[in-house]
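debug: dumping io for the single-chain case to check the tokenizer round-trip. Nothing else runs in this session.
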Amino acid sequence: MEYSIIPMQPEHWPAVREIYREGIATGNATFETETPDWEKWDRSHRRDLRLVATLPLRSPRAKSPGPPITVLGWGALSPVSIRRVYAGVAEVSVYVAAAARGRGLGKALLEALIEQSEASGIWTLQAGIFPENIGSLALHKSCGFREVGTRRRIGKLGSVWRDVALVERRSSKVGV
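debug: decoded output
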């Protein structure tokens, strides 16, 4: 599958939101139960560290009008704290459309986020992952994340208490 990883723009939001909705529907991606509106999502994620994986919908030589790309997945970083001491620590989110899973897209997005985060001075990336989300745990470990521990019954999803595995990746280039 040929795709490009490019900076996320506001016009990507409808597709990003749909991919996020698909993740929410699995019950194993997030504690969220509804997708936020653009303004809320925009405020909670770093503007300089947002990516989408796109696939061309049509040949560049095609004369028919229409959108030039479709979004297959997205990744973004959120600050973990407003305190200066944590300025180089961010939480990572990576979501891939159901139809595009299992093709290496998540890994490509995560690797691109790691590269861009280091270029932006981020020394630690972290993620909270439900232990049942074996694919996400494997993805993060394949990109150098280590499991720090499990936060037992840290929150409820609906009426069920859920554990969250905390994984982190320390940069070998930034903050050494």
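debug: round-trip ok. The domain at 4-125 is CATH 3.40.630.30 (Aminopeptidase).
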